[in-house]
């Protein structure tokens, strides 16, 4: 787990060590970052097309997924806007001026890119085993470029690593997700510990699906996987629409993925000053995922 986090942070650190003095080079980096976001989203669609069939229990999996997703999301989205009002977050001034419909279209564009990748993956009879590796390489390149942007943003290293807002958002996500899991467990007549474990994924769908599937079986494992995957897809949709007015809500709802996969979208739509908040929040949530899931499954 820690080696994986180091793997994510390393390109950020290397990029942060690079000072760029020419505005034209900074602009070039900003442009390439936006383009690479679209590339990695299309690869995400391809990877979805390569998922194995979820089997005969698909109906039950979808019911569990729907109830947990709605319950946890509502709890998150009730509390996060309150934090935005009590403790506003600075975002890019340029993005604050974007009209609402333009932000909606940006969200639609991101979802359409994922959908296009999914359709191509389903229609084209090709080997998709390379997609995950390609996504990983491009993600590392994106994080490297974001590190360069951080260095040239005027923020200090202390502002980036010791971000109180990021810590607060992470703790708020935990504090609202767990009650959401309890509510879902009651509605589905499941043990509360199952609900608490299901609510502790925070968007990390691969690890969550594996841990819960190994302990509770394929139905819960499949539901956990889809629940967190759906969270990531919805986060991609709402970040462009919300981040100018509700940055804490957009970053918080992205969960653990704010540290890696949705980080480029957060930076692209909200500006470089949102990046430290997202990194710290995503890091803390990523750290807590295996700890909380294994704890609740052991009860």
Topology:
Elements: H1 2-16, H2 23-49, H3 58-86, H4 93-96, H5 100-123, H6 131-151, H7 157-161, H8 164-188, H9 192-198, H10 205-216, H11 218-242, H12 247-253, H13 263-270, H14 275-298
Helix pairs in contact: 1-6, 2-5, 2-6, 3-8, 3-11, 3-12, 5-11, 8-9, 8-12, 8-14, 9-14, 10-11, 10-14, 11-12
Structural class: mainly alpha
Low-confidence stretches: 93-98
As an assembly, this protein is single chain
Largest sheet: none
User: What global shape is seen?
Assistant: globular
- Average pLDDT score: 85
Helix content: over 70%
Protein model, in words:
With 299 residues, this protein is an all-alpha fold. It contains 14 helices and no strands. The protein has helices at residues 2-16, 23-49, 58-86, 93-96, 100-123, 131-151, 157-161, 164-188, 192-198, 205-216, 218-242, 247-253, 263-270, 275-298. The chain is globular and about 60 Å long.
Summarize the structure.
With 299 residues, the chain is mainly α.
Keywords:
299 residues, 14 helices
């Amino acid at each position: 787990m820690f080696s994986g986090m180091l793997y994510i942070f390393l390109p950020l650190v290397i990029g942060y060590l690079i000072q760029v003095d020419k505005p034209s080079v900074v602009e070039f980096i900003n442009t390439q970052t936006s383009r690479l976001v679209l590339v990695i989203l299309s690869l995400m669609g391809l990877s979805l097309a390569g998922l194995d069939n979820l089997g005969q229990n698909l109906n039950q999996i979808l019911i569990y997924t729907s109830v947990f997703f709605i319950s946890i999301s509502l709890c998150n989205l009730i509390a996060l806007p309150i934090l935005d009002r009590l403790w506003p977050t600075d975002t890019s001034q340029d993005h604050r001026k974007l009209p609402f419909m333009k932000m909606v279209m940006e969200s639609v564009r991101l979802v359409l890119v994922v959908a296009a990748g999914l359709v191509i993956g389903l229609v084209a009879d090709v080997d998709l085993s390379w997609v995950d590796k390609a996504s990983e390489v491009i993600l590392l390149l994106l994080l490297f470029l974001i590190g360069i942007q951080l260095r040239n943003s005027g923020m200090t290293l202390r502002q980036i690593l010791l971000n109180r807002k990021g810590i607060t958002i992470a703790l708020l996500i935990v504090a609202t997700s767990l009650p959401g899991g309890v509510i879902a467990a009651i509605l589905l007549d499941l043990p509360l510990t199952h609900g608490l474990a299901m609510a502790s994924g925070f968007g990390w769908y691969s690890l969550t699906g594996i841990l819960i599937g190994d302990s509770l079986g394929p139905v819960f494992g499949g539901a956990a996987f889809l629940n967190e995957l759906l969270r990531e897809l919805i986060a991609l949709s709402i970040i462009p629409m919300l981040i100018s007015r509700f940055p804490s809500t957009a970053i918080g709802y992205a969960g653990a993925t704010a540290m890696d996969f949705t980080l480029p979208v957060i930076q692209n739509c909200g500006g470089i000053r949102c990046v430290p908040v997202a990194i710290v929040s995503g890091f803390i949530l990523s750290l807590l995922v295996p700890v909380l899931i294994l704890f609740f499954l052991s009860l």
